[in-house]
Amino acid sequence: MSEEKRIPSRKDLLDIASLSVEEVEHLLKTAAPFKDLFKRSVKKVPALRGKTVLNLFYEPSTRTSSSFEVAASRLSADVTNFTVSLSSVVKGESIIDTIDTLQAMRTDYVVIRHSAAGIPNLIAKHTRASVVNAGDGFHAHPTQALLDMFTIREVFPESAGRKVLIVGDILHSRVARSTSTILNKLGVEVGVLGPSTLVPTARHGFMKGFRNWEEAFAWKPDIVYLLRVQLERQGEPFFPSLGEYHRVYGLTAKRYQRVKDEGIYLMHPGPVNRGVEIDNDAMNYERSLINTQVENGIAARMAVLYWLRPDTAGESKKGAAERA
Amino acid sequence: MSDSPNPETERILSEADIANTVHRLAYEILETCRQDMPALIGIYTRGVTLAKRVHEVLRAAGQDLPLGTLDISLYRDDLDNLGDMLPTLETSEIPFDLDDTRVILFDEVIYTGRTTRAALDGLIDYGRPAKIELAVLVDRGNRELPIQPDYVGVELATTRQQYVKVRFREDDGKEGVFISK
Q1: For residue A90, what pLDDT is reported?
Q2: Rounded Cα distance, A139 and A203, in Å
Q3: Number of alpha carbons in the 13 Å side-chain half-sphere of residue A204
């Protein structure tokens, strides 16, 4: 076919940091035609017909796992959901045993979420299936980053030089880590605001730290990205009470008014804790991109599944490509 | 000479030949469809260019027909054989209602017929056209499926070992139909 520049596939998607700018751009570009399919009455395409996708979730997550499920179904793949906390782990099955099981099931794609960082890398190394990291510990959540960037590009096609303020518990957030990495890769400026005990300063030199909303507003952000307050961390040292959090770092009614006045866009990875990180009214803000993020998540994940190449197709003859 | 960088390659249609062929295709469509004017849909990449050119000629003749584009990458039957180099996806744009519309699909070359098969599957997911026809610049034979074009620019007798390439200025920076010896 045509000789235009093509980006080779990879076997796995484990984090954003290891992707090149060209690969990120390729995935963002591919997500757009996928999103366009959602307008048709037939939303499905046969690209992954006959392939199997296994959703392997060691941590509960309704949104991410159903987003992957919809993405895989719209590519015509067969999807199996495996919520492990309820099954084998209880029976003492090790990760290595799980890998052997996957291998025996001849799964083509494994979407994995685990509370321990690095587990997806371990599985990727030992299986022929393509592995997509759907969140591992505090490490990475690459598809969230891609959908966030895709969403930002929709409102700011020339995204370089734009400013995104991330608010919340940066330290414990894989969303913050992956999303700030992709923003930085594509030249978007990143500011962070959160309890000082929860904002890492050393590791990410490119992030501009703010002590309070006043300072952050003065920086003139184009987008405010609120992180979810992980309620399960309540009572841990360094974590303020919810009331205090809302007062100091939450998007209160007053701050929401300022966001509206300045036309700042709002993002949030969901699920939202109303009244904690975000005021109730702000959920209906016309420049809230929160629902768009959900829709774009499906398109971005379709782009990822379509781009990855498992080793499971290894036996099929290579020569046929020439005739295409 | 500079048009065929590879000495093993022969240019069999020049820029002027292509223009004449496009013109003839357009008028054949005009004649055949007089009672029921179709919508034109080009298959990415060069089928889109071909459709645009035919559209241009028809517009000059007083017929401004609906024009769309179709990317068939997601419908190909050989994704497993493409190795790790996937085609770049384009956005299919069909800015009109397909239901009960007569449609002519455009592709620059018809060979095995597999692209057309994929295009039919793709198109049908957008709606239910009244009729689908196929127009090509070059028919090089060697079909692997029972699919035939309705409007043909030129027919070439080729072997499977040869390759035929259509190059359009808009897509490739040069123009011509090339065949390997």
Answers
A1: 56
A2: 13
A3: 23
Q: What's at A271, amino acid-wise?
A: P
Cα–Cα dist A294/A279, whole Å: 20
Distance from CA of A37 to the nearest CA of B (A): 9
Domains and CATH numbers, chain A: 21-141+297-315 (3.40.50.1370), 142-295 (3.40.50.1370)
Percent of the residues in chain A that have a pLDDT greater than 70, as a whole number: 89
Residue B65 within a domain:
yes
Query: Phi first, then psi: what are they for B106, rounded to 5°?
Result: -120, 130
Q: Which two tokens stand for residue A173?
A: 């957030």
Interface contact B79, partner A, CB < 8 A: yes
For residue A216, give the H/E element and its range. helix A213-218
Cα-to-chain-centroid distance, residue B120: 13
Q: Which domain holds residue B145?
A: 17-73+95-160
- Considering its fold, how many domains does chain B have in total? 1
Contact B131, B114 (CB under 8 A): no
Of how many residues is chain A composed? 324
B153 belongs to a structural domain: yes
- Give whole-number Cα distances, B137 to A256, A284, A321, B17, B167, in Å: 59, 53, 23, 11, 11
DSSP one-letter code for B72:
-
- What's the Rg (C-alpha) of chain A? 20
* Residue of A4, A40, A320 lying closest to B81 (CB–CB): A320
Q: What's the token pair of residue B7?
A: 């000495």
Task: Give A266's strand partners.
Answer: A224, A288
Q: What is the pLDDT of residue A226?
A: 96
In sequence order, which residues have a C-beta less than 8 Å from that of residue B20 and are 6 or more positions away?
none
Q: Which residues contact A274 (CB under 8 A, 6 or more apart)?
A: A280, A283
Put simply, the answer to whether A318 touches B81 (Cβ < 8 Å) is yes
Q: How far apart are CA A53 and CA A72, in angstroms?
A: 7
pLDDT at A225: 97
CA A187 to chain centre: 18
- Please determine, for residue A324, whether its predicted confidence score (pLDDT) is greater than 70: no
Q: Using an 8 Å CB-CB cutoff, list chain A residues near B125.
A: 40, 42, 44-45
